[in-house]
Amino acid sequence: MNKLKIVFNFLKIKLKNIGSVLLKGSTAYMIGAFGLIQVASIVADNINIAESLGVTKEIFMQYLFLGVIFLFPVFLIVTFIIKNNSIKNEILSSLDNNLSQIDDYRPKIAVIPFENLNKDSDGQFLVDGIAEDLLTELSMVKEISVATRKTCFSLRDKDITSQNFKDEYGFDYVVTGSIRASENRIRISIELSDMKDDKVIWSNRFDSENKDIFDIQDEIVTKIVTCIVGEIEISSLKRANRKPTDNMTSYEYTLKGRALNQQYEKNANAEAIKMLDAAIAADKTNPLPHSWKACTIGQSLALGFREDNEEARSDLMASLSKANELNDNDWNALRIIAEAHLTLQDFEGAMVYANKAYNSNPNHPFVLWIYGRILLRYGNLESGIKILEQLYEREPIPMSDINTDRMNRELFLAYYLDKDYKKCEETFNKINECTFREWLINIDIKIKQNKDYAQDNWFVSGIERFNNLDKEKEISLFHLNNKFISNELKNLSQKVFA
What we know:
- The chain is α/β, with parallel strands linked by helices.
- It folds into 3 domains: 2-93, no CATH class; 108-241, 3-Layer(aba) Sandwich (Rossmann fold), CATH 3.40.50.10070; 248-431, Serine Threonine Protein Phosphatase 5, Tetratricopeptide repeat.
- The chain has 23 helices and 6 strands.
- It has helices at residues 2-15, 19-46, 49-53, 57-92, 95-100, 124-139, 149-153, 163-169, 213-229, 248-261, 266-282, 287-302, 310-326, 331-343, 347-360, 365-377, 381-394, 405-417, 421-428, 436-448, 457-465, 471-476, 483-496, and strands at 108-111, 115-116, 145-146, 173-182, 185-194, 199-209.
- Strands 1, 2, 3, 4, 5 and 6 form a 6-stranded mixed beta sheet that branches.
């Protein structure tokens, strides 16, 4: 049953953008078919069908009716293929432009966690949540470079005017502010500072009802972007990609769930699910708790907080499908869908969703992580490497990690695919604990360079660690879109463990 649910929800996502087209096509086909049968009946009454076609009118009409029925699924299949390819081409049409702008300089901005003037721990999630929302909204603008959440929240209580701060982070602009909440009202004071001369270039104070928070965020983001890069089309702010709820209870539960999700701890993960379920119960049309629930379930599986079984995967796909149904431009849902396609080794599908996620949020590390990795598999090695290197520079240790291994492992693979064996060696030496993938690839590199490795500690320890693995299955999990390299590594593995 869970397998059927997984397949059903995955198909819902794939059919989301073409379902209405198929429905309209079906309606048009039925109308056209009915019209054809009516016209054929009139024509048959006025000409001698037996002389013209050699069959009676009754037989002719039966054949026509059966033909209409049998051609209907063919029509739907052709419509599906044409529309599906059209959607893919439309999404990927922005790929080359995106990649051409990777090296372009963009003003760097950070949003420092706002001061909670209420001084209450219960309201801190709201204060941090609003600051993070602004950070997310700004990260959707391609014309600027936005610091990661991890970086921004590590800057709490730091002296942003000090020279040490400027030298270490090199931000062009910094957003600071404070929030005071009372009953159903909220007061936000905000400043945008130019770090070159410690000059406040824009400030404002907003005093409004809680329900107006999204309008306030709109105004703040628009003003900040205008101050930094000048007037741009409002569509560039991607506001339509968010579709916020009007229900403050749902919004507050979503903020609590998101904050708990980002603690990367088992109990917090379980509590995050409860908060997000409460947000969904408060407003079933709010897409954000669904996408963050999918993210939280994925986190629980990746970090071992929950058993990886059909039930868990079914829950993940159900949340993902609902998030995509409510908002098919939600960057968080899109990047998880891209991960799912990568796992299934559907590299074109993965590229479609990763590029769409990048169009929605070109600054978020989660999006850059999947975007860079899929570009490698999609044949865009240079661009994939640039994105992963930039991500490594911005956030070498992702929020859930304790060291740089995950980033260095992916960069090691990238350099291997690019045949840059010098960088491979430098990166391999930075990895604290290599997996079977890095171990096997490093053997291949040593062989290609005619270097001896049989006595090296990494090789000897790997023989013992990886001896009992299902080597062919593990190599398939490398998700390489290159059969020659995959087969080469399979043959190498068989030789090493012969």
